[in-house]
Design goal:
The protein is α/β, with parallel strands linked by helices and 235 residues long. It is built from ten helices and seven strands. The protein has one domain: Glycerol-3-phosphate (1)-acyltransferase (3-Layer(aba) Sandwich), CATH 3.40.1130.10.
Length: 235
């Protein structure tokens, strides 16, 4: 219902947005900044048209230098729209392979230099982690959901998987924890009521902070920080 509302309220813009999205899809190689800006515009239109407000704080904690990874809790497909809305810099993200051919998402994946992961194929999954590490070292930014799958328990955070942090360890990049609250509501509830999604960008962990830690220890530390932030945001 929410997606339908997003489309209907911006129906007059859909042909233009779609044609331009397809153009960036076909010419993505040298158009990262412009392509990301267009995808971001689509997300902004969708959020506003969908009767959703994103209340963001801590944006000053986003590193100034490129080459970092956002690590939020995962509540649903709307999470990526939240990050497209708040992020001042381009980023790629990791999506499950089952959705790689869905229109709009398909184009967004290529335009943002994102990755698709087959969770049933360990070798392919390791290849994705290596690709992300290489991309980060080349100055790109990424969004990784360390839970591996979305939580279906509202704002409850699932255990973070240590393997998700291998990309950060390999690239020695800043880890940016991000707490999301009520991001599951827009697409999971059969309602179009006014919804406020809260997001808080926490202080990054730099390589010096985690270089002596194992990946499972990093996962536990980041998960703990996000859980504490969510508790504060719900008070």
């Amino acid at each position: 219902m929410r997606i339908l509302l997003m489309v209907l309220r911006r129906l007059y813009l859909v042909p233009y947005l779609w044609i331009k999205l397809r153009w960036y899809y076909r010419h993505y190689e040298n158009n990262l900044e412009a392509g990301f800006a267009h995808v971001k515009k689509i997300a902004d239109y969708g959020i506003k048209g969908g009767n959703v407000e994103v209340a963001a704080e801590g944006l000053e904690n986003i590193p100034r230098q490129p080459g970092f990874i956002y690590y939020p809790n995962h509540q649903g497909m709307f999470d990526v729209m939240v990050f497209l809305h708040i992020s001042p810099v381009p980023f790629g993200f990791v999506s499950k392979i089952e959705v790689k051919d869905i229109p709009v998402l398909k184009e967004t994946l290529k335009i943002t230099r994102s990755e698709v992961i087959d969770r049933s194929d360990i070798k392919q999954s390791l290849g994705v982690i290596n690709n992300i590490a290489k991309g980060v070292m080349e100055g790109r930014n990424y969004l990784l959901f360390a839970e591996g799958t979305r939580s279906r328990k509202g704002n409850e955070v699932l255990p973070f998987k240590g393997g998700s942090f291998k990309a950060a360890q390999k690239s020695k990049c800043p880890i940016v924890p991000v707490a999301l609250v009520d991001s599951f509501i827009p697409f999971d509830e059969r309602s179009i009521r006014k919804t406020v999604v809260k997001v808080r960008v926490l202080k990054p962990l730099y390589y010096e902070d985690y270089k002596s830690m194992k990946s499972v220890e990093i996962a536990s530390e980041v998960q703990g920080r996000i859980r504490e932030a969510i508790r504060e945001m719900q008070q």
